[in-house]
Amino acid sequence: MTPAPAPTPPRVVVGAALCSHGRFLAARRTSPAAVAGRWEFPGGKVEPGETEQAALARELREELGVEATVTARVPGAWPVGEDLVLHIWLARLTSGTPQPLQDHDALRWLTPAEALTLSWLPQDLPAVHWLTEHQTSSAGPGRERI
Ligand SMILES: Nc1nc2c([nH]c(=O)n2[C@H]2C[C@H](O)[C@@H](COP(=O)(O)OP(=O)(O)OP(=O)(O)O)O2)c(=O)[nH]1
C-alpha cells in the first residue's frame, strides 16, 4: 500500500508588535472586503527560503517605510483558515516614522487599555491580550517592560 503523503505544513504569516514607550502599533486593513476596517499587526506571509525575522523586516519596509529590529516571539501560534498560521514578534523601530503606505489606511500607537477597545482580526486577540499583560510602564514582579 502506498503511504499517504505527509500533510503540507501551514504557511507562516508574521506580524510585528512594534513597541515604543509603553505602546505598540496597530494597523487598519483595507482589504479584502471581509476584513477591511479590522485592526492587525503589520506584516504578511513568509516567502519560501526567508526567515520569519527577514520577512517581517521586509514587510515593515514595504508597508510602513521603516527599518526595525525583530527581537522575540510572542508565545503562541494561531491558525488563519486552513493554510496559514500566525506568529507575532516583538520589534523595535531603528529608523523612520511608520506611514500607511500599503494595505492599511490608519495606524495607531496603542496603550494596553486602548488596545482592548479596537476591533481586531480575531486570530490576533491572544497576542493582543499577551501584550496588554506584559507591556507596562513600570516593570514589577512577573511583568516585564517590552
Ligand atoms: N499581516 C497580518 N495578517 C494577518 C494578521 N492576523 C491575521 O489573521 N492575518 C491574516 C490576514 C491574511 O489572511 C493573512 C496575511 O495576508 P497578507 O495579505 O497580510 O499577506 P501579504 O502581505 O504577504 O500579502 P500577499 O503577498 O499574499 O498579497 O493573515 C495580522 O496581524 N497581520
From TrEMBL:
UniProt cross-references to Pfam families, sorted A to Z: NUDIX
Q: Which GO terms describe its molecular function?
A: hydrolase activity
- Give the UniProt keywords, A-Z: DNA damage, DNA repair, DNA replication, Hydrolase, Magnesium, Metal-binding, Mutator protein
Q: Which Gene3D superfamilies match?
A: Nucleoside Triphosphate Pyrophosphohydrolase (3.90.79.10)
Question: Which cofactors, by name?
Answer: Mg(2+)
InterPro entries to which the protein is assigned, alphabetical:
MutT-like (IPR047127), Nudix_hydrolase (IPR020476), NUDIX_hydrolase-like_dom_sf (IPR015797), NUDIX_hydrolase_CS (IPR020084), NUDIX_hydrolase_dom (IPR000086)
Nudix hydrolase domain: residues covered: 9-132
Under CDD domains, the record lists: NUDIX_MutT_NudA_like
Which catalytic reaction applies to this protein?
8-oxo-dGTP + H2O = 8-oxo-dGMP + diphosphate + H(+)
E.C. designation(s): 3.6.1.55
Please give the family membership noted in the entry: Belongs to the Nudix hydrolase family.
Q: Which PANTHER family match?
A: 8-OXO-DGTP DIPHOSPHATASE, NUDIX HYDROLASE FAMILY PROTEIN
Q: What is this protein called?
A: 8-oxo-dGTP diphosphatase
- Organism lineage: Bacteria, Bacillati, Actinomycetota, Actinomycetes, Kitasatosporales
